[in-house]
Amino acid sequence: MLLVLGSCQQDFNPGTNGSSLTVRSGTSFGMCVGYCQQDVVIDNKNTVFTKTSREPAKNPTINCQKQTDTGTWNEIATKVNFDAFQKVPETLGCPDCADGGAEYVEIQLNDSRHRVTFEYNKTIPGFEDLVSAVRQQRNAFADCK
């Protein structure tokens, strides 16, 4: 019986199914001029960073990409507990209220995905290490132009 229950769990094991996991993270600000949204998409092959504006004619979308370092990928992937993450509400606090900004982390495992949006520069209880790791990857693109 325990064997059957264990086979349903959707925790991620980077050694066996690394191609099935994608982690996304980003920030946005409602009352903003310029590039108001930043997103990063991380998988076992590439890390893609995108900056967008509400005025694309003035500020065209900017994309930067790099190969995902194996050590970085394993650090992020081992922090993923998809079953537990799916139990977190989709919205925490009051993201982007009074232009405080919003932040999100989204995990996609195979065909399932769950996004949690929370107040900028806060965290997701129980997933502090994951939030920190994906922020670090997003912030690594600060010079992307």
Automatic annotation (TrEMBL):
It comes from the Bacteria. This is Uncharacterized protein. It comes from Fibrisoma limi BUZ 3.
